[in-house]
Amino acid sequence: MTIHHISRPRSRRPGSRIRGRVPVALVATVATLGLGAALAPAAASAHVTATSPGLAQGGYGVITFNVPNETDTNTTTTSLTITLPNLKSARPEAIPGWQAAVTKDPTTDEATSVTWTTTPGATGVAPGQFQRFVLSAGPLPEKESVTFPAVQTYSDGERVDWNQAPNADGSEPEHPAPEIELAAKSDDHHGSGTAAGGEESSDTDTTARWLGGAGLVVGVIGLAAAGVAFRRRA
């Protein structure tokens, strides 16, 4: 008589499924936290801002105005006007699709504002995008900080005035005016572009970059954990 052995399916150890699922749940949580950290600075920094690394009081240098389109409609940014603190020199950088015009005081011949507008056929700054507007200017006021009130105009005619000072409690207003920090006055009034005095226009931008970097790191950790979980389950 032949005896047939019936093979039984190998049972999986009780803990194997748990080990396979825990990393997946962890990945979902980590990915969510990372995405939130990455998106938070985008919402916090959606203002017209100014940066000027290395500029000193009374000196000359380059100022960059960062202009995002934060509308939830299908309108584009077609014009930007920056009020200047009566500068002897103000030279805008050429930008494809944009034309610039500097307004001067007829009495002193000092620049009081600069306006960028889209050229015929150009669309401007679309929703979700941003544009840098660069200005070489000076001599800058001998102050620790300088504000540049701005007017952002959209294709539907809407205007947004970025001209508000910080609130009394130090918090940021809804439409803050772009502001730059200037280093102490030095013998070289033309500026050196070094790290000294090269602070960003606000602590908000610095915090945003840190949060964005943290979000990316967390995302990488999440992907690595997902790979480990997949190999264990396989």
TrEMBL record:
Residues 157-176, 187-207 are annotated as: Disordered. InterPro entries: YcnI-copper_dom, YcnI-like_sf. Keywords: Membrane, Transmembrane, Transmembrane helix. This is YcnI family protein. The keyword Amino-acid biosynthesis does not apply. Residues 47-182 form the YncI copper-binding domain. Pfam families: DUF1775 (PF07987). Coiled coil: none annotated. The chain crosses the membrane at residues 210-230.
